[in-house]
C-alpha cells in the first residue's frame, strides 16, 4: 500500500448500471470497462458538485471528505501529477506522425 501526502476524496456513492455508450475514437472497450469508466466519471461529478455545494460545510459527516495522510511518504515529495488527457493527446498525435 502506497501512501501519499496528496489529499484524496472518500465517498459512499452507489454504483448503478447504465446502457452502453458508443465510442467515437474507434477503440473497442468491453461493456464492463465502459461501465467502470462511466461510474468513476459520474461519481466524481457528484463529489465535485457536493464539494461546491453551499451546504457542504454543514454535512461534513455525510458528504465527501478529504483524506490526508497522517504520515506522508517522503519519497513522494517531488511527485508531479500527470494530466492523462494531455498525455493521450500527445500519444495520439505522435502515432499519426509515424
TrEMBL record:
<dbReference type="InterPro" id="IPR029428">
    <property type="entry name" value="MCRIP"/>
</dbReference>
<comment type="similarity">
    <text>Belongs to the MCRIP family.</text>
</comment>
<dbReference type="Pfam" id="PF14799">
    <property type="entry name" value="FAM195"/>
</dbReference>
<keyword id="KW-0539">Nucleus</keyword>
<feature type="compositionally biased region" description="Basic and acidic residues">
    <location>
        <begin position="51"/>
        <end position="69"/>
    </location>
</feature>
<feature type="compositionally biased region" description="Basic and acidic residues">
    <location>
        <begin position="85"/>
        <end position="98"/>
    </location>
</feature>
<dbReference type="GO" id="GO:0005634">
    <property type="term" value="C:nucleus"/>
</dbReference>
<feature type="region of interest" description="Disordered">
    <location>
        <begin position="1"/>
        <end position="30"/>
    </location>
</feature>
<dbReference type="GO" id="GO:0010494">
    <property type="term" value="C:cytoplasmic stress granule"/>
</dbReference>
<keyword id="KW-0963">Cytoplasm</keyword>
<protein>
    <submittedName>
        <fullName>MAPK regulated corepressor interacting protein 1</fullName>
    </submittedName>
</protein>
<feature type="region of interest" description="Disordered">
    <location>
        <begin position="51"/>
        <end position="98"/>
    </location>
</feature>
<feature type="compositionally biased region" description="Polar residues">
    <location>
        <begin position="13"/>
        <end position="27"/>
    </location>
</feature>
